[in-house]
Amino acid sequence: MNESRKAALFHQLIGQCPLCNQAVNGHSISLLSSVVLNTGNQEKISDLESLISSRQWSDIANIKEGCQNSDMKQYYILTCPLKGMTLLTFVFTYELWSDDWLDEVIQILPEDFIELENIINSAWLAL
């Protein structure tokens, strides 16, 4: 999927920025982590959520699973030009007729912004 189609998908899924309550034009997004959603992967998902709770961003960024024929949970960093950063979790479904959705919004503390910028580097998608 090209960048403009990805940006359009995120515009649709996010709608308004959860930080500034405005359209996400001028914001950026980047994939931090992803896991396969299936019953055999619950422990890994729980471990990842524990890492998020303890703000272990480097460890979180090292978890990037992918599978073309499974539902996925993906964790993205959204940057807001007015209010900083937030972590968004999305569920992307394998089934063609099932909708993808924004699952959760998790606050990121300002003291974590520089570490996350260093982890993501320049892999931002402009919205």
Q: Would you summarize the structure shown here?
A:
By secondary structure, the protein is α+β, with helices and mostly antiparallel strands.
Give me some keywords for this one.
127 residues; alpha+beta; five-stranded antiparallel beta sheet; 4 helices; 5 strands; 29% helix; globular
Describe this structure in words.
It is built from 4 helices and 5 strands. The chain is an alpha+beta fold. The chain has a 5-stranded antiparallel sheet. The longest helix has 12 residues, at 3-14. The protein is globular. The two termini are 15 Å apart.
Summarize the biggest pleated sheet: 5 strands, antiparallel
Strand composition percent:
25-35%
Main β-sheet, spatial strand arrangement: 4-3-2-1-5
* Overall pLDDT metric: 94
> Based on DSSP secondary structure assignment, what is the total number of beta strands?
5
Order of helices and strands, N to C?
Answer: HEHHEEEHE
Q: Work out the helix count.
A: 4
Amount of helix? 25-40%
